[in-house]
Amino acid sequence: MSKKIQAIRGMNDLLPAQSPLWQYFEDQVRDLMARYGYDEIRTPIVEQTALFKRSIGEVTDIVEKEMYTFEDRNGDSLTLRPEGTASCVRAALEHGLLHNQTQRLWYQGPMFRHERPQKGRYRQFHQIGVEAFGLEGPDIDAETILLSARLWQQLGLFEYVTLELNSLGSPEARAAYRDTLVSYFEAHHDVLDEDSRRRLTSNPLRILDSKNPDMAAMLADAPRLMDHLDAESKEHFERLCALLDAADIAYEINPRLVRGLDYYSRTVFEWTTTALGSQGTVCAGGRYDGLVEQLGGKPVPAVGFAMGIERLVLLLETLDLVPDEARGALDVYLLPMDEASTATALLLGERLRETLPELRAQLHCGGGSFKSRLKKADKSGARLALLLGEDELAEGSVTLKYLREEREQQRLRQEDLIAALTPLLEGESFA
Ligand code: HAM
């Protein structure tokens, strides 16, 4: 036998047992986006490398260490997208979607980062993201946050996540703050670890994100960007906080929240959970008023976020919040007991599906002994088997066998079947 070829580390197959939960999650999101008036955009998985370098920033972890970059056959440098915002801006600009108009867009799909795989962190992962263009006030920031909060509510997750909020101010205020911060770090040079020393010149704000316990005390006393905001950003932030207060959405202001992508200005936020270990950020985003211009357009304010589907699915499983409808179980297994009953079972299945579009019914195929047929019925996970044999054929009936309940089986006329199955679809037990 030849050696088996395996999937690439950090890139996962989504197996049939897991897909009902993903579909449930995606359905909830799709429905929610429509309810808030967001339109879907789909962009290619591969873009020119320059797009990500210019938007995410040359000296970020993503661009420096994590991108899947390759030369194509023409010698062009291409990259598998590590996130969706840059592509979304590129597409919106390319197709004139930002010209004198606002846009509320959402997207979903795989993203690629060459990080060290661990629970909740993968090299191919899936995001759902939202980007709103052309609106500069804090009302849209608040709306995107409320949209995500509603999703947590719908999924039963709301009490398990915390909203962390910060403002990064204007680029000018941030540049001034950067100087203050660098002076502070230089005065504490001996406490800085190697990574932080490297960042001191390239990206000193990211030092604030360090989890190194030896630096914790020094970081706690570091000057806070919140105290160095420009007046307009400060007001923007206060108005956002007031809107969240009015909507009764609790938040923690985290002055050290800086995010790992360079394009942000003003609002940044993260939804985090303690239930997943170290990869606890399930959704993150913020405002990026300078990015459209940086990518060649006229200035257009923008705000958005993205959530990691794997982390959210994992959270639903960990907290035992997977509803029955997300388990994908069959309702009915149609079981012809011999060759002669096959056509009747097949047609009965079609009739049922026509009248009961919600019904999930599977037909037994492939013959086998009576015992093995029943075994398959049980293994199918269906609640009910519909048995059709010689007797049933002769009298136009069907036998209902309960596969998950201790109940006598029951024989019905085929025309009474629909009425008998209806309560099953409404989540009730049978009459
Ligand atoms: P991000 O913080 O890099 O932001 O990613 C957003 C979310 O994607 C994270 O909070 C996490 O849930 C998930 N995620 C990121 N990396 C991985 C990974 N390696 N494995 C599993 N899940 C992961 C962005 O990507 C921005 N584009 C968000 C945004 C949109 N900002 C404005 N608009």
Which CATH class of the largest domain applies here? Alpha Beta
So what's the overall shape? elongated
Strand content: 15-25%
- The end-to-end span amounts to 55 Å
Major β-sheet strand ordering:
1-5-6-11-10-9-7-8
Calculate Rg over CA atoms. Answer: 28 Å
**Mean of residue pLDDT values:** 95
Helical amount: 25-40%
Q: How is the main sheet built?
A: 8 strands, mixed
CATH superfamily of the largest domain, by name, is Bira Bifunctional Protein, Domain 2
Number of strands: 16
Enzyme class: ligase
Family: Belongs to the class-II aminoacyl-tRNA synthetase family.
GO molecular function: ATP binding; histidine-tRNA ligase activity
EC number: 6.1.1.21
Overview of this protein structure:
The chain is an alpha+beta fold and 431 residues long. The protein has two domains: 19-169 and 229-318, Bira Bifunctional Protein, Domain 2 (BirA Bifunctional Protein, domain 2), CATH 3.30.930; 330-425, Rossmann fold, CATH 3.40.50. The protein is 37% helix and 19% strand. The chain contains 15 helices and 16 strands. The protein has helices at 19-35, 49-56, 61-66, 85-94, 138-155, 171-187, 194-202, 216-220, 231-246, 291-294, 309-318, 342-355, 370-379, 390-395, 417-425, and strands at 39-40, 46-48, 68-71, 77-80, 103-112, 124-133, 162-167, 252-253, 267-272, 281-287, 302-308, 332-336, 361-363, 384-388, 397-402, 410-413. The chain has an eight-stranded mixed β-sheet with strand order 1-5-6-11-10-9-7-8. It has a five-stranded mixed β-sheet with strand order 13-12-14-15-16, with helices on both faces. β12 (332-336), α12 (342-355) and β13 form a beta-alpha-beta unit. The mean pLDDT is 95. It binds histidyl-adenosine monophosphate.
